[in-house]
Amino acid sequence: MLGKTDLLEAIASTNRGLLASNNDRQAIQSWAARLEDRTPHPQALAAKEQLNGIWRLLYTTSQELLGIDNIPLYKLGQIYQCVYLDEARIYNLAEVVGLPQLGGLVSVSAQFEAVSDRRVNVAFERGVFGLQSLLGYETPLSFIQKLRDQDKLPFWQGLDFRLNRDRQSGWLEVTYLDDDLRISRGNQGSLFVLKKVRG
Questions:
Q1: Which domains does the chain have, with CATH numbers?
Q2: Among 172, 171, 178, which Cα is nearest to 195's?
Q3: Which is it for strands 104-114 and 159-162: parallel, antiparallel or unpaired?
Q4: Whole-number pLDDT of residue 168
Q5: How far is it between the farthest Cα atoms of the chain?
């Protein structure tokens, strides 16, 4: 699709936004806006088959996420978001790459409430941080299932803590959605471009 290829080419060399120049950011915003005007699913929350599942972050302007790259001796790895519409829950996972066997993981889970046909209010409830090896992290799907099965992980696996829903909240709007690409915008002006993970 015209515009989609251009957007993907524009973000390809930005390392999820970490290496984006001002010109890159302007071009990406422009291509994203063109796609948003032609979204196949303007009522994104009703498109359950397309929206449900695991998404890998391709690009963002969110300094909260990109700031993870500033942890000493670590680099930001892949970032995933898993959407469960029937449970009204979102799970965010950020892999952190370090020395061998010392890769980390940062995870937050949230409850959401639909306020329009494409916007949700999000309240973050739980954070998990630790070494991937101790957390038993293998894939995003298996780890999210572990979080769903256990209200609190043992202390020796990592930090598992409750977040203040009132302070850790915001909104997220799905502005473009097709079978394998999603564009979302957040309450802090952040742009997110994500690709659906298959299998």
A1: 42-196 (2.40.128.280)
A2: 178
A3: unpaired
A4: 66
A5: 50
Is the pLDDT confidence value at 74 over 90?
no
Buried b (16+ CB within 10 A) or exposed e, 57-88: bbbbbbeebbebbeeeebebbebbbbbbbeee
What does the pLDDT average to over 162-166?
A: 81
- In this predicted structure, the answer to whether residue 96 has a pLDDT above a threshold of 90 is yes
Query: 156 with 134: CB under 8 angstroms?
Result: yes
95 SS3 class: strand
- For the whole model, what pTM was predicted? 0.93
For 105-138, letters b (16+ CB in 10 Å) and e give: bbbbbbbbeeeeebbbebbbbbbbbbbbeebebe
Angle at 24 between CA 22 and CA 26, to 5 degrees: 70
Cα dihedral: 65, 66, 68, 70 (round 10): -160
Provide long-range contacts, Cβ within 8 A and 24+ apart, for 66-74: 66/16, 66/17, 66/18, 68/94, 68/96, 68/106, 69/18, 71/96, 71/104, 73/98, 73/99, 74/98, 74/104
Question: What's the count of helices (H) and strands (E) in the chain, helices before strands?
Answer: 6, 9
Residue 111: φ, ψ to 5°:
-100, 145
Residue 48: what are its φ and ψ, rounded to 5°? Answer: -60, -45
pLDDT digits (tens, 9 = 90+) for 112-137: 999 999 999 999 999 999 999 999 99
